[in-house]
Amino acid sequence: MQFSGFRILKEGLAGNRGWKPHWRKPDPKPDYDMLIIGGGGHGLATAYYLAKNHGLTNIAVLEKGYLGGGNIGRNTTIVRANYFLPGNSEFYSHSLKLWEGLEDELNYNVMHSQRGLINLFHSDGQRDAFARRGNAMLAQGDDAILLDREGVRAILPYLDFEQARFPIYGGLYHKRGGTARHDAVAWGYARGADQRGVDLIENCEVTGISVESGRVTGVSTTRGEIRARKVGIVTAGRTSQVAAMAGLRLPIESHILQAFVTEGLKPCIDHVISFGMGHFYISQSDKGGLVFGGDLDFYPSYAARGNLPGVEQVMEAGMALMPMIGRAKVLRSWGGIMDMTPDGSPIIDRTPIEGLYLDAGWCYGGFKAVPASGWCMAHLMATDQPHPVARRYRLDRFATGHLLDEEGKGSQHNLH
Ligand SMILES: Cc1cc2nc3c(=O)[nH]c(=O)nc-3n(C[C@H](O)[C@H](O)[C@H](O)COP(=O)(O)OP(=O)(O)OC[C@H]3O[C@@H](n4cnc5c(N)ncnc54)[C@H](O)[C@@H]3O)c2cc1C
After folding, report:
1. Ligand 1, pocket-test mutation among 201, 203, 235, 338, most atoms within 8 A of CB
2. Range of 333's domain?
């Protein structure tokens, strides 16, 4: 089923009775070439690109809940390519290019909106850091403009420029940054994978990983045993638990990150803004709600909900940046389980077990990575070679010291 303006018109006139479900609900087969554990953004994108780029379709995605119920449907939807370090810079640049063609690629409206991202800075030192970051972005072929205070004021006049606790010195403007509708990304990739023959199996929790003579042979699930030659672990915050089923101990901690949405307001914030003196970022959804978040809740947990000190920190930062936000009512908040690596960068690699692959460690920033992560994980699983833009995402870098030191955060800072 192709989506188009004409189709919407036709269905509208015919009472919307012709729409079909986006994907089938197959029972699991006993045997597949490849299994992807985890039906979040990364797992679904991996399955899609395995089918699309490599012609591999005897694949199942095994999801313990429903598709899109994990972090892919819980994030604050920010998409950007403003990374500083070689290794991350080229990967996120590749991802943003994929985002820019994603709606045509999937024939699906993921509401990708390049409304521009502005990272504010509040000291001379921060200005230097953002100037360097902007230069790295330009060197990578992406866009960046260093704004002074008046430049920011011209674009974001509603910020507190007069009596701010942390005066605004300027901002790094990334015009191609923006947002997308998070669950639509999961649905779009799911539909695309299903159309190419991938089985998407919901309510199917993986409870064990079978390994014989150092080689993966399949998995145990709540819907029976399934054999496969290759298995990918793409389970975000649950990665450590799933990897432990194969006897692996990973350099990943699980932490909670919360998000907040206000009541619907008339359009007032038409960019994504990130505050430099407290961890706080905000945008306005197309429905009108202000969508914002802050830092992790600093204790490891598998509970997909946050705690009050985290709420207080986010609200304080919001008020310090834009006091007007205090007049909006928060309607909803929720948490997601982050898979944090010690250096804050991800892993897309083989594991010591033959046929078992890992795509994890996305920390608080894996939404924007979904297209490139799926692309690179599919490449790895199909060819057994790392994709060039993900070649530094090695699992052994924590043993060899080749870290990609973005910003590893966790409850035990002395270990990072
Ligand atoms: C509040 C919040 C805000 C965020 N904001 C941003 C942002 O603005 N920009 C950005 O780039 N990133 C953001 N992120 C991070 C981003 O959402 C995640 O890094 C990314 O979604 C993780 O990958 P995923 O989509 O595959 O995860 P998930 O959607 O969590 O997918 C993993 C899936 O694995 C399944 N699973 C787990 N265990 C098993 C098992 N045993 N068997 C079968 N299935 C299993 C889970 O049910 C889940 O569906 C945010 C995250 C949160 C929580």
Report:
1. 235
2. 112-178+254-340
With 0-12 / 13-18 / 19 or more C-beta atoms within 10 angstroms meaning exposed / middle / buried, residue 214 is: exposed
CA of 70 to the centre of ligand 1 (A): 5
Note whether 239 and 349 are same-domain residues.
Answer: yes
**What is the SS3 assignment for 6?**
helix
Say whether both 240 and 262 belong to one domain. Answer: no
349 with 394: CB under 8 angstroms? yes
Distance CA 145, CA 130 (A): 10
- Helix (H), strand (E) counts: the chain: 11, 18
d(CA 213, CA 294): 45
User: Does residue 80 belong to any structural domain of this protein?
Assistant: no
Per-residue pLDDT tens over the stretch 174-194: 999 999 999 999 999 999 999
Q: Is the pLDDT of residue 415 over 80?
A: no
User: Could you report the per-residue pLDDT of 351-390, keeping only the tens digit for each?
Assistant: 999 999 999 999 889 999 999 999 999 999 999 999 999 9
Q: Say what the pLDDT of residue 408 is.
A: 59
| Reported pTM | 0.97
- Ligand 1 pocket list (CB less than 6 A): 37-43, 62-65, 69-72, 74-78, 205-206, 234-236, 238, 242, 257-259, 293, 336, 362, 364-368
202 contacts 40 by C-beta, under 8 angstroms: no
Q: How confident is the model at residue 410 (pLDDT cuts 50, 70, 90)?
A: low
